[in-house]
Each structure stands twice: as C-alpha cells, then as structure tokens.
Design goal:
The chain has a domain of about 50 residues. Helices cover about 75% and strands about 0% of the residues. The chain is built from 2 helices and no strands. The model has no long low-confidence stretch (mean pLDDT about 90).
C-alpha cells in the first residue's frame, strides 16, 4: 500500500523534472503549445494523485490501528 502511495506522489515530480519529454511546441491544443498545456494537465493529474494517495494513507492507517487494537485484546 505504501509503495503505491509513494508512486502516486513521485510520478508528478518525475514527469516535471524530465523536461526533455515535453520541451516542444507540437502538438498545439486550442492554440496553446504543448510545453504549456502539458504542465497545466499535470497540475490536474497531480491533484488527483495526491487525493488518491491521501485516501490510501487514511485506509492504511485505519487498517493498522484496527490490527493493533485487535492484537491488544
């Protein structure tokens, strides 16, 4: 579970730090060069991935506390 959370949080960094993959103007989307709309798209993707990571973290914490509470009884 924690590996998936880590990947959700790491993916946007890798995508943005790998500039060579998006340092171009084509394809143009509604008049906006690829360089710009790719970065704006990653803002939305990063938000979704962060939300997913947070929900998975909450689920993991609940499961750990339930397992810990069950082991004490």
């Amino acid at each position: 579970m924690r590996v998936v959370i880590g990947l959700c949080l790491l993916a946007p960094f890798v995508a943005m730090l790998w500039v060579g993959s998006y340092a171009k103007t084509d394809p143009v989307f509604i008049g906006i060069p690829f360089f710009y709309w790719y970065q704006m798209l990653w803002v939305l993707i990063s938000t979704a991935l962060t939300m997913i990571a947070y929900k998975l973290w909450q689920r993991d914490q609940r499961a750990r506390s339930a397992a810990k509470g069950g082991a004490e009884q």
